[in-house]
Amino acid sequence: MTRTIRLSRIHALNWYGYKDAIQCDGNVLLAGVTGSGKSVLMDLIQFVLVGDQRLVRFNQSATGERSQRSLKGYCLGDTKQEDDGINPYMRQSAITYAALEFKWPDGKRTETWGIRIEFRSAADVHGNVTPFFLPCSMERGNFLDDQKRPLEYPAFKDVVETQDGRLYTEGVDAYLRDMAQPVHLNFERSLLRSLLPTAMSFTFLRSFNEFCRLFILPSDKLDVGDVTSSYRTFLAYERELKELNDQFERLSKIRDTFLRLVDLRKIAALARYLEAKLNYEYILRKL
Fold first, then answer.
1. How far is CA 271 from the centre of its chain?
2. How crowded is the C-beta side of 129, counted as CA atoms within 13 Å?
């Protein structure tokens, strides 16, 4: 039996033109003409798993490069059709639920991870973004009120609390931290955030070296500060060692000269002694 945790459902409620809960059991094929919304779903998957809007490459799977699409555009439905410098939206205010449902191999465990996005007006720049976690499967209707509209925050908070879930009001970092834990989806967060946006862009790479830089090597610049410091310390030790070696050679020459001087003084003392003795014997013979 496979041990793979599988994506089983995509919730896209007011995510651009989508207002659906899409089943993903087994193999799923996304097909359609250009502009039908295939890349829109890819962007939803990226956003839920990566979280950081600065890292998500919206619409790159369709264009091959980063586009002008934004989270606000997905929530309000940016038509990209300017009229007198004004870019109209399909919705002047909106609440969006973007979520992914995952099932464990035994079929007895299901988790839903997602993000609630709310823009009160087209003038709202950043909106309110609240990640959430639910330890269960969610139907499309669970995100809607009696009038089939996305739940307001208090009503959705009640749903989350009822299911023993969690709203990450402190921000996306805690959400991503928990989602990556072994007790949940169990993945390397730094690796996913660097590789997933690039992998889902579906663009051709120029060379194997480029593949290594993008998918194998870390995206962050290498910190060579410690290496540089160690090398400079090595050079300093090398200079000191050279100076010590020069001092040792000079001291060795001084030592040799001194020992030679001591030997010469001994020889000189012996010569004076012999000279004095010979003179003494000579005088005795004369007497």
1. 87
2. 21
21-50 core/surface letters (b: 16 or more CB in 10 A; e: else): beeeeeeeeeeeeeeebebbbbbbbbbbbb
Alpha helices in 135-224 (DSSP H): 153-162, 172-179, 189-199, 208-215
| Predicted confidence (pLDDT) per residue in 109-129, tens digit | 999 999 999 999 888 888 999
Backbone angles phi, psi at 276, to 5 degrees: -65, -40
pTM of the model: 0.68
pLDDT tens-digit readout, 131-177: 999 999 999 999 999 999 999 999 999 999 999 999 999 989 999 99
Burial class of residue 116, CB neighbours in 10 A (0-12, 13-18, 19+): buried
Just give the CATH number of 6-215. Answer: 3.40.1140.10
